[in-house]
Design brief:
binds zinc ion; eight-stranded parallel β-sheet; TIM Barrel
Length: 284
């Protein structure tokens, strides 16, 4: 069973205004790759995995709003294969109520937040804490985009994984996942997931910076936290096959070079792990 914890469904109509489009183009020429409506997602992503988690994103500050309803409709059509994560913008006064609606009425099963896209500080007690409180009450996990991004206006300081330590201390029952190992602050994420029992990380969209990814995985082995890493792709940024091949490829740095070796089993365990069980998400 292959479960992809981190994928996106972005239709052209979810890009509001031109700012985000421009950023996509300038941020590495991957604009084409950023558009994947549910039809493309189903054809390409779902052909390679058994289950995929899809992310809504309420980020008007970055010109991208993927509605909860869009994700809920896709999940409703494939309840055994699609797990929808809601998103609410903590800058909205009714964000916590919006989350409650998305979970209890629409049936979504997690919350996606991205402070660099949504322009809020994770430790903003007035705006963000009511949302965490609601997520904890509802018993749903948060998947955080932490780490850098090409969007120009979102402050990098909002996206430091170390902030989530304080959130975990204040909401000990809240399950949280740091996407992309919080790159380029992988070390912050690694010490965070070692310390906090309810915080995990995913390895999505990292293999194409192979030297950095190799070093992060060696660090994760040294801190003995590889059992807290989940498989994800950030589709359409990468596909499952590309990510699996990319993981295995970084092992070359340790083969016959005198540098630390990453056993294949480390990646195999990550690929075969069931994040839904750990996060308390039930299919259907
Ligand atoms: Zn993502």
């Amino acid at each position: 069973m292959l479960i992809d914890l981190h994928t996106h469904v972005n239709a052209p109509e979810h890009l509001i205004g031109t700012k985000f489009m421009e950023d996509c183009i300038r941020g590495g020429g991957r604009y084409e790759g950023m558009i994947a409506d549910r039809e493309r997602h189903f054809t390409e992503e779902m052909a390679q995995v058994d289950v995929a988690c899809i992310m809504a994103l309420d980020a008007p500050a970055s010109g991208l709003v993927v509605p909860n309803e869009y994700c809920a409709a896709y999940q409703r059509d494939y309840p055994d294969r699609i797990v929808g994560f809601a998103s609410v913008d903590p800058n909205r006064a009714d964000a916590a109520d919006g989350l409650k609606h998305a979970i209890t009425e629409l049936g979504l099963k997690g919350l996606k937040l991205g402070p660099i896209y949504q322009h809020f500080h994770p430790l903003d007690e007035k705006k963000a804490y009511p949302v965490y409180e609601m997520a904890q009450q509802l018993g749903i996990p948060i998947l955080w985009h932490m780490g850098t991004s090409f969007v120009e206006k979102g402050p990098l300081e909002y996206t430091r994984p170390i902030h989530i330590d304080r959130v975990a201390l204040d909401f000990p029952n809240l399950k949280q996942v740091i996407a992309h190992l919080g790159h380029p602050w992988e070390a912050e994420t690694i010490v965070l997931i070692r310390k906090q029992p309810n915080v995990w990380a995913d390895i999505s969209a990292l293999y194409y910076r192979p030297w950095q990814f190799y070093n992060s995985m060696v660090l994760a082995m040294e801190y003995k936290v590889t059992h807290k890493l989940f498989f994800g792709t950030d589709f359409p940024v990468t596909t499952p096959q590309q990510t699996i091949a990319g993981c295995m490829a970084v092992r070359r740095f340790g083969e016959g070079t005198g540098l630390p070796e990453i056993p294949a089993s480390v990646f195999e365990d990550i690929i075969h792990r069931n994040p839904l069980e750990a996060l308390g998400i039930r299919l259907g």
